[in-house]
Every structure is written in structure tokens, then in C-alpha cells.
Q: What sequence folds into this?
């Protein structure tokens, strides 16, 4: 079970959005797909920064690769995890959630595949995504059902991204059916028509330390959020932004398989949800979004105005925030000395000496999302800050822990229900969050149905930066960034001007991107 004490969580076998990889042209990516078992030993890229920063930033990148591809790529028991019949051996492995968590978990499986796994080890990522799904008695597919429904639909976003990376048509067909069925069930059971929002706790806050009182009940010693009153009716920023991204992912999938009418319905639903988020969660007085709306109890209808790090990042990445609002959100986002935090400021029962486990504390995965959002919105300075924050945390002992003290940088599991909790070692999404910032933020890798595009953000003094031996479909790439900033002044593939690395290429190719 998770260290948050979520003993009720069901285990398998036990009983825009261009920046985020969701939006894209509807054409089908059929060229040079990766086969399901192709990367038994996936190629490992190498990175080189300018000498002054390579030891820190490059060292963290190399360690993050080891975390994902060595420490946390593990063999699975097919009798437990292959409940769909879609896992493959080779490779016979998946990404576990971390050193303290042997399972992949729904949210972790999707996040780790989306962050970096699908690009670096697509066959392992494919297994990881299917390991958190099930096949029903009628043969249909569904993301596994448990009592943490709010984290299920991020699977759709990761699945569409996986197809964009690999071009795997068989995966797309099954994934679209699975995601559509899952979203349909969640809309039928978790959508509040009065608000136009989805009910459920926040994306990262499955422990009650992530919420003020109410809904936290001081007389209740359970750490699990749903054990506290009315938490099932909360309408949170992060969760609703994820649903918005999932609608767009489903629309793209539907177009890719020829279901154009369904695609239109998903896009219309996304627009309705975005309007509801704006209506209920946007704070015009503060130029940012609030954390959640109470759905029941004494504060029903009230917006809590705390800043939610993951929610604000998702608002940018999933296209909920307009470009102007995205700039405002990032300009007003609070940072502690060691990074953006889950929720700010402290709730009344916590303080700097006793930070809440899901409150003013640093989860590197959240920092990774914030850093990517900063790059997507043009804030190269904030991307640099986020990459530097996680790299500094890594350098303390060479590991990527689950969470850290926001003021000291010490490994710190935070406080919850009156006691101090541990932080687990070698957390997979702490490492993949860093990889995401490098691949999607720094290099600006954009997977599309027709190939790779780049929208890099290179902080001053970091370049030249070269990523060598990056495997993509049937090719390997060496990508070099020179200059600084975001304005792309030259883009070449094998010495010829081009803004796309075509998906049908094979062999080795060199990409050079000059910024100025």
C-alpha cells in the first residue's frame, strides 16, 4: 500500500495542448511504428551541457535515466497484472511507482509513461499502461476501477501521447475503446451538472494533509482523503483540468480512428468544461485559479483560494488557461526555496517546522509539471529555476526521493494526522518529472502524428546542449541546442533546413537548433 495508508485502494490482481502531447493534427501516424516488444534493452540517450553546469544538470539527467530504466523497470507477474491479455514478453517488464511502491498504480503508470517512459522505453511503457487496466466479462477494456476514481482518466492523456510517440495503431484502437468507456463511466457517476465540473479530490492530494478544515475533520485519524466528510464532492482545479485534457485526447483519438462525430462531441464537452472551470475556479482579483469548490457541507459552493501547484501547471499545459491567463498564473505562482509546492500557503494546522505532507512541501513531480508549463508559456527563467530546483535536490545524495522539505531541501515526508511520515526512496515520477523538463521543456520535443517538432527553451549559459542517441521510432537522433532563449533562428535536419523530423525516417540523424 502507499505510505499514505491507503489500504482501501484496489490493486490489480488483488481481490494543450500541444505542449502536453494531447492536441495535434488528426491524421493517423502510420509510418515506422515501434513494435510492442522492440525495446528489450532500450537505447539510452546521453546528454552534455556546457561545462559549468553539466555536473549538476547532466548528472541529474543521467541519474534520472538510471532511476527509470534500471531501478524501477521491473518484472511483473502476468497472473496478477495481465488482466487485459495485452502485456507482452519481451520485454516482460513495467515501471513500478518507486522504491517503496512495487505496483505501477493508475496515476503513476500514466504519469511516468507520459513524462518520459513512452519515449525512452515504449514497450515497457505500453506494458505499464495496460497493467492498470482490466478486461470486463463482455471483452471490453476499462481503466481499473477502485475508490480513487479521480486519478483514472489521466490514463487517456498518457495513452494518446504513447500513440503519438510510437505510431502503434493496434495500441491506439484498444486505447481509444478503453479510454472512451472509462470516461463515459466517470461522466455518468462523477460529473456534477449543477456546476459543470467533475467531483473528486485533487490529482496529487490523496492524503488528507492536502486539504484545509473542512473537509479535514480533526477528530478523524484516517489519512485517506475519502474518509473525511464531503471529500467525494470536492471539485478541484487539477482534476478538472485533467478531464479537460482527457476530452481533447479522446477527440484526437476519435479523429485518428475515423470517429469524427465522436471527436466533435468530445471537443464540445471540453469547451463546456473549460467554461465551467473559468466560471467557478478563476479568481479575477488574483489573476490565478483557486484550489477547489466545496460540493457539500457548511461551505458548499465556496471556492478555496489556495494555490495548487499541479492544478496551475495543468491549466497551462491542457489549454484551460488562455495565453494571457497562463502568463498571469505563472507570474503569481509561489515558490519556496526548493521549488513550487503542492498547495500554498500552510493550512492552519501546519507551519514551516511541521509542513503538511501534501501542503507546503516539494514533490519533484509537481515541480516537473510546473517547469514544463513555464516552458510552454514562454518563461524560460522559470523552467531554469524548476530544473535547477530538482537537480539540487538530487545532488544531496544522488537519489530522487518522493518528497522534500520546501525550505531546507531535506528529504521529508511531511506531517499528516498528527505524525511525521516517511518519504520513499527512488520515486519514479520524481525522476521522470526531471526528464520531462529536459525533453519537453528544454528541448521542446513535440510528438505529432507526422513526426517530431521542437520548441526549445534554452537558459543563458546552459548551451550548447546535446542529446545524443535519442531513439524515436525507427531512428536515433542527435539534437543540439545553441544560443539562448526561445526564438528559433535556425532549424536543420542533417544540415538541411527543416522544422520536422519525419516519422518515416530510419537510421541516424542530426538535428541542430539555434536560438537567439
A:
Amino acid at each position: 500500500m502507499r505510505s499514505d495508508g491507503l489500504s482501501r485502494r484496489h490493486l490489480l490482481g488483488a481481490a494543450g495542448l500541444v505542449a502536453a502531447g494531447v492536441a495535434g493534427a488528426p491524421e493517423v501516424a502510420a509510418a515506422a511504428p515501434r513494435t510492442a516488444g522492440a525495446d528489450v534493452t532500450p537505447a539510452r540517450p546521453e546528454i552534455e551541457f556546457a561545462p559549468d553546469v553539466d555536473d549538476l544538470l547532466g548528472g541529474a539527467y543521467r541519474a534520472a535515466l538510471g532511476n527509470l530504466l534500471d531501478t524501477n523497470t521491473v518484472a511483473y507477474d502476468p497472473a496478477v497484472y495481465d488482466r487485459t491479455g495485452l502485456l507482452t514478453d519481451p520485454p516482460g517488464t513495467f515501471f513500478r511507482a518507486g522504491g517503496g511502491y512495487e505496483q505501477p498504480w493508475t496515476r503513476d503508470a500514466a504519469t511516468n509513461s507520459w513524462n518520459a517512459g513512452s519515449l525512452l522505453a515504449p514497450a515497457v511503457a505500453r506494458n505499464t499502461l495496460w497493467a492498470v487496466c482490466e478486461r470486463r466479462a463482455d471483452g471490453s477494456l476499462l481503466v481499473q476501477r477502485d475508490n480513487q476514481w479521480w486519478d483514472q482518466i489521466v490514463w487517456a492523456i498518457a495513452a494518446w501521447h504513447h500513440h503519438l510517440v510510437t505510431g502503434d495503431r493496434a495500441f491506439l484502437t484498444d486505447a481509444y475503446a478503453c479510454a472512451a468507456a472509462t470516461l463515459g463511466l466517470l461522466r455518468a457517476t462523477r460529473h456534477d451538472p449543477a456546476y459543470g465540473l467533475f467531483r473528486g479530490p485533487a490529482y496529487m492530494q490523496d492524503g488528507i494533509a492536502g486539504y484545509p478544515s473542512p473537509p479535514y475533520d480533526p477528530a478523524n485519524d484516517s489519512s485517506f482523503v475519502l474518509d473525511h466528510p464531503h471529500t467525494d464532492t470536492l471539485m478541484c482545479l487539477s482534476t478538472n483540468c485533467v478531464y479537460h485534457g482527457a476530452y481533447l485526447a479522446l477527440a484526437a483519438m476519435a479523429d485518428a480512428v475515423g470517429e469524427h462525430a465522436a471527436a466533435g462531441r468530445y471537443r464540445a464537452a471540453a469547451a463546456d468544461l473549460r467554461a465551467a472551470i473559468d466560471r467557478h475556479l478563476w479568481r479575477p482579483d488574483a489573476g490565478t485559479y483557486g484550489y477547489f469548490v466545496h460540493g457539500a457541507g457548511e461551505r458548499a459552493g465556496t471556492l478555496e483560494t489556495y494555490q495548487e501547484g499541479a492544478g496551475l501547471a495543468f491549466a497551462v499545459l491542457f489549454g484551460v488557461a488562455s495565453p494571457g491567463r497562463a502568463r498571469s498564473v505563472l507570474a503569481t505562482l509561489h515558490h519556496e526555496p526548493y521549488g513550487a509546492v503542492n498547495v500554498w500557503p500552510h493550512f492552519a494546522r501546519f507551519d514551516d517546522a511541521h509542513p503538511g505532507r501534501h501542503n507546503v512541501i516539494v514533490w519533484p513531480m509537481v515541480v516537473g509539471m510546473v517547469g514544463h508549463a513555464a516552458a510552454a508559456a514562454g518563461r524560460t527563467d522559470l523552467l531554469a529555476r524548476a530544473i535547477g530546483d530538482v537537480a539540487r535536490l538530487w545532488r544531496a545524495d544522488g537519489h530522487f526521493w518522493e518528497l522534500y522539505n520546501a525550505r531546507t531541501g531535506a528529504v521529508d515526508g511531511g506531517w499528516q494526522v498528527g505524525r511525521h511520515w516517511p518519504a520513499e526512496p527512488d520515486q519514479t515520477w520524481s525522476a521522470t518529472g526531471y526528464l520531462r523538463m529536459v525533453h519537453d521543456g528544454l528541448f521542446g520535443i513535440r510528438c505529432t502524428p507526422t513526426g517530431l517538432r521542437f520548441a526549445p527553451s534554452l537558459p543563458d549559459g546552459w548551451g550548447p546542449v546535446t542529446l545524443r542517441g535519442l531513439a524515436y521510432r525507427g531512428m536515433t537522433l542527435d539534437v543540439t541546442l545553441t544560443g539562448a532563449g526561445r526564438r528559433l533562428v535556425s532549424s536543420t535536419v542533417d544540415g538541411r533546413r527543416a522544422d520536422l523530423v519525419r516519422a518515416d525516417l530510419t537510421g541516424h540523424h542530426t538535428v541542430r537548433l539555434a536560438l537567439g
